[in-house]
Amino acid sequence: MLEFGIERVACKLERAALKLERAELKLERAELKLERVAPKLERAALKLERVALRLERVAPKLERAAPKLERVALKLERAEIKLERVALKLERVAPKLERAALKLERAALKLERVALRLERVAPKLERTALKLERAAPKLERVVLKLGQ
C-alpha cells in the first residue's frame, strides 16, 4: 500500500512538474511578447506626450476662439430664422406672382392679336389715307364753291 501511495504522490509530482514547465513556457512567451510590445508602447507613449504638448499649445487658442464661435453660431441661428421668414413670405407671395404672370401672358397674347389686326388693317388705312389725300383738293374746291 505504501508503494501505491508513493506512486500516487510521484504522479502528482510529475503532473505538477509538467504544469510548472508549461507555466514557465507561458511566462517565457509572455516575456517575448512584452519585449516585442515594449518598443511599440514606448512609441505610443511618446506620441501621446507629443499630442498632449500640442493640446497644451492649442487649448488657449481654442479658449479664445470659443466666444467667437458662439457669436457665429448665434448669427447663423438668426440668419436661419430670417431665411425661414423670407421663405414664408415667398410662400404667401408665390400664388400672387403666379396669377400676375398669367395675367401678363394673357395681356401679351391680346397685344399680339391687336398687332396682327393692325398689320391686316394697316394697308387698308394707307389706301384710305391716299384716297383722302387725293380727294382733299376736290373737297377744298367743293367747300369753296359752297362758301360762295
UniProtKB/TrEMBL annotation:
<feature type="coiled-coil region">
    <location>
        <begin position="6"/>
        <end position="35"/>
    </location>
</feature>
<feature type="coiled-coil region">
    <location>
        <begin position="69"/>
        <end position="119"/>
    </location>
</feature>
<keyword id="KW-0175">Coiled coil</keyword>
<protein>
    <submittedName>
        <fullName>Uncharacterized protein</fullName>
    </submittedName>
</protein>
